[in-house]
């Protein structure tokens, strides 16, 4: 077995150039002496790649080597924990034997060695003696039968265990001191004992239930406080002198915890550190592979923070978040988690090397995609670890100031603030959020940040009031707005790829002045880079067929209407994608350009330089278009030019903020459109809304009762009053049972809530539609000034279905609930 009793060798340079490299303790080899010149060597990195050069410094006290690489002016410095093995290229030759004398290298036989390197790699071979010192292991690999040796050095931080020579069990059997059966029995008992050492296998006593965890936390709370250095000394892993040296080094760099510093210096392994944390400091050890993680706890900590620290939330107990960490004594990491989660923390211990996989698995279960999680991991240098201890210190400093002096506490260029904003945007992107609301109340109230997901606002984070000015200023800088202007609203756009590499995301930013010379901000995430296929929009078969017919017409006007955020632009881009062929020239005027398509000529309007929708339309008419898309009809001029364009042989697509299809017609006529030209130009109007879609993982089905059918039928038939040739209620009910029923009965679904849908019962959104196409009778009614009610009745007689009616059919199809439909129609 390895011998640590030998005195350490002096390996520092003796004359500024050479080294006293160790040699086997055999008479057949020269005594270690300084090399006259830096020896050639090869260093194997942690990734397995080798680097060759000359060894100019070997300093075990600082755990440092320096390598002079070819074509490099200055030596390359490497800490011991930055490489796996070092090999001297010049072999060590045995001294020549005297005539008739026995071979001096044969006085000690070759020894087998087994080195368990980190990363589950086993290195096996033979060595002619060895030296194991606190900072690493020296081996001498035989190259031939003449005693020529290859010299190796393996840093202590690079391997988990090392065995040199015959195993003790084999030696006992060879000496007839024990039988193979007795050795096997002893090995089994030893393995059982080893498995109970928390710093080694850490299996038997791992906590796998919430009750066990609560009891272990209570036991730890009653234990006397022990510092990590004292625990390591008590276990014999380090001595007092080594601890004091590490403490002196730590004073110059407080960012590295003491335990991590000792690991980097090679004085202890990570297994040793975890043994001290568990056995002497009492931290409960949790098996994260089997522990039933509470998703409410996971939801409190953004994945960006969990993956960066790393840490995994487990449960919430008495208002405190219990979090599994590899080093629960890391105060800076605890501060960062407490800041992000906005609650106090109870850290517990987890085995080294298993946390990253567990974090990915748990957050994927909560709803984040694997691609999104990889995007966070590869987010680039701007998304490195936040120094939360400094962040909290600045927060506390700001709390004690007068509110007129609040801007002095946090600056918009503060590195922690920059990373906080990047983390917030990434988290919103990964959760499928459509808008981020940042609200800055007056006084000393906290800044409130909320996410809009599936149309609903949800709390995300609260920050101290000292952040409000710097937070808004940083967002203005990101989208090139005037940070000194607080009196009027501003609009801008963030290209997030400039700030976090590898994340293709754009955000539309609007700032609005509020009470107390403050500002709120709303960020809209523009993540739809490609159009949705027209068949995937959720249009009913009848509406889809009529809509496709309308967009295939060579000229005319087709309008898509609804409130902000109802998917109008998405629908128009799907329509253009359907007709985007080499035979057509399509121009678009948008503000902003949210979706890009190959083959379209897309233009961003800019009212500040008088580049308006109307001006863009007139420019398009001189550019030989087939199809023109106008982002929005906002005024009379744009409406008139759109009608003129559609009457001169062009298909015009646009949007409008109105509530229903019939109301759109009367609104445009009220804006001053000529009824005759407008009626001739109009092909159809598609009104739409977005409703929350039921989560298919947890929705619960029930058979519709007679009362349910009567209620739905009454709601459906309400709009049919006064419609010529309207279907009867019995006909409608029979049609429902045929299309949606099973054995003549209808099925309704209700939301429940699960991990997939964040306990809401809804996941994603679905569209409900109202498509009014213009027939001859409807065109005549428009020309004669018909009211919206008259247009509705004519449309229903021609086969149109209202938003409410389309929504009821999607309720029967199991897509949503009647409450969602009624709330949006």
Explain this structure.
With 825 residues, the protein is α+β, with helices and mostly antiparallel strands. It has 4 domains: 40-96 and 105-165, no CATH class; 210-383, GMP Synthetase, Chain A, domain 3; 404-526, Beta-Lactamase (2-Layer Sandwich), CATH 3.30.450.90; 534-823, P-loop containing nucleotide triphosphate hydrolases (Rossmann fold, 3-Layer(aba) Sandwich). The protein is 33% helix and 23% strand. The strands form 6 sheets. The protein has an 8-stranded antiparallel β-sheet with strand order 4-3-2-1-5-10-9-8, with no helix packed on it. α10 links the parallel β14 and β15. α20 (661-670) packs antiparallel against α25 and α21 packs antiparallel against α24 (776-783). The longest helix has 16 residues, at 180-195.
């Amino acid at each position: 077995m390895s011998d640590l009793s030998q005195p350490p060798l002096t390996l520092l340079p003796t004359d500024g150039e050479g080294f006293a490299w160790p040699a086997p303790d055999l008479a057949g080899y020269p005594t270690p002496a300084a090399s006259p010149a830096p020896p050639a060597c090869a260093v194997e990195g942690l990734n397995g790649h080798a680097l060759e050069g000359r060894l100019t410094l070997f300093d075990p006290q600082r755990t440092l080597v320096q390598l002079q690489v070819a074509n490099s002016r200055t030596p390359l410095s490497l800490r011991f924990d930055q490489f796996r093995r070092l090999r001297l290229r010049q072999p060590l030759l045995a001294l020549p034997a005297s005539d008739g004398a026995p071979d001096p290298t044969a006085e000690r036989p070759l020894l087998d060695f087994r080195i368990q390197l980190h990363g589950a790699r086993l290195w096996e071979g033979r060595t002619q003696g060895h030296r194991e010192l606190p900072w690493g292991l020296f081996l001498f690999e035989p190259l031939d039968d003449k005693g020529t040796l290859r010299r190796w050095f393996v840093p202590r931080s690079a391997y988990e265990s090392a065995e040199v020579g015959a195993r003790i069990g084999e030696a006992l059997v060879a000496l007839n001191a024990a039988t193979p059966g007795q050795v096997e029995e002893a090995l089994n008992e030893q393995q059982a004992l080893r498995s109970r050492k928390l710093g080694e296998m850490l299996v038997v006593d791992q906590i796998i239930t919430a009750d066990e965890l609560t009891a272990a936390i209570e036991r730890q709370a009653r234990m006397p406080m022990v510092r990590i250095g004292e625990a390591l000394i008590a276990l014999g892993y380090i001595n007092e002198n080594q601890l004091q040296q590490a403490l002196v080094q730590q004073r110059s760099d407080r960012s590295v915890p003491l335990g991590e510093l000792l690991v980097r210096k090679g004085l202890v392994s990570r297994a040793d550190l975890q043994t001290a944390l568990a056995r002497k400091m009492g931290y409960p050890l949790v098996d994260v592979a089997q522990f039933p993680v509470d998703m409410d706890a996971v939801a409190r900590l953004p994945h960006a923070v969990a993956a960066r620290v790393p840490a995994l939330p487990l449960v919430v107990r008495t208002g405190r978040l219990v979090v599994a960490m590899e080093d629960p004594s890391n105060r800076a990491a605890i501060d960062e988690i407490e800041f992000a989660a906005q609650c106090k923390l109870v850290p517990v211990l987890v085995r080294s090397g298993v946390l990253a996989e567990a974090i990915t698995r748990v957050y994927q279960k909560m709803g984040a995609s694997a691609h999104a999680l990889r995007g966070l991991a590869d987010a680039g240098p701007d998304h490195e670890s936040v120094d939360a201890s400094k962040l909290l210190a600045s927060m506390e400093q700001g709390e004690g100031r007068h509110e007129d002096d609040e801007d002095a506490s946090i600056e918009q260029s503060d590195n922690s603030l920059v990373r906080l904003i990047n983390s917030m945007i990434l988290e919103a992107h990964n959760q499928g959020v459509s808008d981020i609301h940042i609200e800055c109340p007056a006084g000393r109230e906290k800044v409130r940040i909320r996410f809009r997901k599936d149309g609903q606002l949800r709390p995300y984070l609260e920050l101290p009031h000292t952040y409000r000015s710097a937070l808004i200023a940083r967002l203005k800088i990101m989208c090139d707005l005037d940070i000194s202007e607080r009196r009027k609203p501003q609009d801008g756009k963030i290209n997030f790829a400039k700030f976090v590499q590898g994340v293709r995301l754009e955000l539309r930013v609007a700032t609005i002045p509020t009470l107390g010379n403050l500002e709120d901000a709303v960020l809209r995430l523009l993540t739809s880079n490609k159009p949705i296929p027209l068949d995937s929009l959720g249009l009913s078969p009848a509406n889809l067929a009529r809509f496709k017919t309308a967009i295939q017409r060579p000229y005319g006007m087709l309008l898509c209407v609804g409130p902000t955020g109802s998917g109008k632009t998405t629908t128009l881009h799907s329509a253009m994608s359907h007709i985007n062929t080499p035979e057509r020239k399509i121009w678009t005027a948008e503000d902003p350009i949210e979706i890009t398509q190959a083959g379209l000529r897309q233009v961003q309007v800019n009212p500040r330089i008088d580049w308006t929708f109307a001006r863009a339309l007139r420019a398009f008419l001189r550019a030989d278009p087939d199809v023109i898309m106008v982002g929005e009809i906002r005024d009379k001029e744009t409406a008139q030019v759109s009608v003129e364009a559609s009457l001169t042989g062009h298909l015009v697509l646009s949007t409008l903020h109105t509530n229903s299809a019939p109301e759109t017609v009367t609104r445009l006529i009220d804006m001053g459109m000529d009824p005759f030209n407008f009626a001739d130009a109009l092909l159809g109007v598609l009104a739409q809304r977005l409703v929350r879609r039921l989560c298919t993982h947890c929705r619960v089905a029930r058979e519709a009762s007679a009362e349910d059918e009567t209620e739905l039928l009454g709601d459906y038939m309400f709009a049919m009053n006064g419609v010529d040739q309207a279907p009867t209620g019995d006909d409608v009910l029979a049609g429902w049972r045929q299309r949606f029923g099973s054995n003549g009965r209808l099925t309704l679904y209700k939301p429940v809530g699960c991990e997939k849908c964040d306990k809401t019962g809804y996941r994603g959104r679905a569209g409900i539609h109202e498509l009014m196409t213009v027939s001859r009778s409807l065109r005549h009614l428009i020309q004669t000034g018909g009211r919206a009610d008259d247009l509705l009745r004519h449309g229903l007689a021609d086969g149109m279905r209202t938003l409410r009616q389309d929504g009821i059919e999607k309720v029967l199809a199991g897509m949503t609930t009647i409450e969602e439909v009624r709330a949006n129609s």
